[in-house]
């Protein structure tokens, strides 16, 4: 059952159209989340924390695929493993490694250039690591001339995080 993402402000007839076409093709759809598109307009508004966090800044590699898949809300086992593997191997990512070299927080980039899959393991939360990762990736992508944006679920904690430098963007 493929997920149906809906965006605030998007005409509801779009959702109805998707459901109608899916019904005609005998494909079921399920509304999973309502998301906001957030865009970075001004990099100077990004979080400017300690430039040398207590953990080591790095990129994800193939050894992290299963970890990311297990922690991703929309991870669907083997179905999403390939997508995550492609993201890690083909597009920019950023992570923080603890003293043992284990990834404790990360952010990836989708093929569309959107930031995503931001996650911090529970015992490392509340230390500003997500802000460091967002700022690092956004600054890197912006410096290379890429648009910097993401999709955040309605009523999700990440919405508050991305409001620190990002603004809501209208889709249509």
UniProtKB/TrEMBL annotation:
Q: What is its EC number?
A: 2.3.1.-
One of the record's GO cellular component terms = mitochondrion
Keyword tRNA processing present in the record's keywords: the answer is no
Q: Which Pfam families match?
A: Gly_acyl_tr_C (PF08444), Gly_acyl_tr_N (PF06021)
Residue stretches making up the N-acetyltransferase domain: 55-172
For this UniProt record, give its keywords in alphabetical order, as a comma-separated list.
Acyltransferase, Transferase
Q: Does the keyword Chloroplast apply?
A: no
Q: Which SUPFAM superfamilies match?
A: Acyl-CoA N-acyltransferases (Nat) (SSF55729)
Which Gene Ontology terms cover its molecular function? glycine N-acyltransferase activity
Q: Which domain of life is it from?
A: Eukaryota
Which EC class is this protein assigned? transferase
Family per similarity comment? Belongs to the glycine N-acyltransferase family.
UniProt-recorded name of the protein: Glycine N-acyltransferase-like protein
Q: Which organism is it from?
A: Synaphobranchus kaupii
The organism's lineage? Eukaryota, Metazoa, Chordata, Craniata, Vertebrata
